[in-house]
Amino acid sequence: GPKGPGQRGGAPPPRRPPPPSPAGSGLPKIPLFSDLPKPAFIELLVKMKMREVPAGQVIIREGQPGESFFVVARGRVRVTRRNDAGREVLLARLRDGAFFGEMALLHPGPRTATVTAEAESQVLEITKKVLDDVISHYPTVATALRNFHQQRLLATCMATHELFQPFNLDDRRRLMEKFKSRNFERGAVLLEEGQPPTGLYILLHGRLVVTKLVDGEEVTLAELQPGSMFGEMSLLANEPTN
Ligand code: CMP
């Protein structure tokens, strides 16, 4: 069972909460790792680097490369991203036990958002290598990460794309539930030029190309990255896809 904090009688209360140290009884609660057996969790904690971040400090900056993953041990961080119009939009506030920085690890690329401490916080930093090691022994961690990741991509797309700006947060949440997850093999055609639109899509994982026939030649118009939306033009205009 859980042991007490081990404070000696009469000792003055600590000036601030003790850091979540594996040596104490106050192991941080990290839902992502809740399936790990305790020894594995402690082993992982030892490999994490604790960082104290003052309020206002940027931990991750959108667009920069990054190879580590973070857990909020204590405090509060704000996740923001520039929208299509270049304005900084709030995507989420994350508190004790939440994680961030997984996107750059799941498919290598620049950071998709900026993460800033909103209050003095303690974050645990985990390298990609350590996380990969955990995942190889405990695959359920990867499943949980991917599920969160897909929800976040969807939320981010809806928060930043101008198409969804007229909707409030609740509406957006309800809309999010209408999306269905679909898998496609390499080479599959999702939308075909000249055909009726089949839906509005957001790419969660993988890579897509957009092509158009110009004078009988197939020209590549764009390559879509995860988080991109497509299919909206023909849907809104109620016309065959262009
Ligand atoms: P990454 O792209 O590596 O760095 C920025 C992080 O912000 C990202 O990983 C996610 O962890 C986090 N993030 C991005 N979008 C959202 C969102 N909609 N809600 C919560 N966190 C997000």
Describe the structure.
This protein has 242 residues and is an alpha+beta fold. It is built from six helices and twelve strands. The strands form four sheets. It has a four-stranded antiparallel β-sheet with strand order 1-8-3-6. The chain has a four-stranded antiparallel β-sheet with strand order 2-7-4-5. A hairpin with a 5-residue loop joins strand 4 (76-82) and strand 5. Helix 3 packs across helix 4. The protein is elongated. Adenosine-3',5'-cyclic-monophosphate binds next to strand 5, helix 2 and helix 4.
Summarize the helix and strand pattern as letters.
Answer: HEEEEEEHEEHHHEEEEH
The helix tally amounts to: 6
The ligands found in this model are: adenosine-3',5'-cyclic-monophosphate
Query: Span from first to last CA?
Result: 64 Å
Instruction: Calculate the mean pLDDT score and round it.
Output: 87
Instruction: Kindly provide the radius of gyration, computed on alpha-carbon positions and rounded to a whole number of angstroms.
Output: 22 Å
Strand order of the largest sheet: 1-8-3-6
How many strands? Answer: 12
Shape: elongated
Low-pLDDT parts are: 1-10, 17-25
Structural class: alpha+beta
Helix-strand layout with pairing:
Blueprint lengths: L37 H10 L1 E5 L4 E3 L7 E7 L1 E7 L5 E8 L3 E2 L2 H4 L7 E4 L3 E7 H10 L1 H22 L8 H8 L24 E2 L5 E7 L2 E8 L4 E2 L1 H6 L5
Antiparallel strand pairs: 1-8, 2-7, 3-6, 3-8, 4-5, 4-7, 9-12, 10-11
Helix pairs in contact: 3-4, 4-5
Adenosine-3',5'-cyclic-monophosphate binds next to strand 5, helix 2 and helix 4.
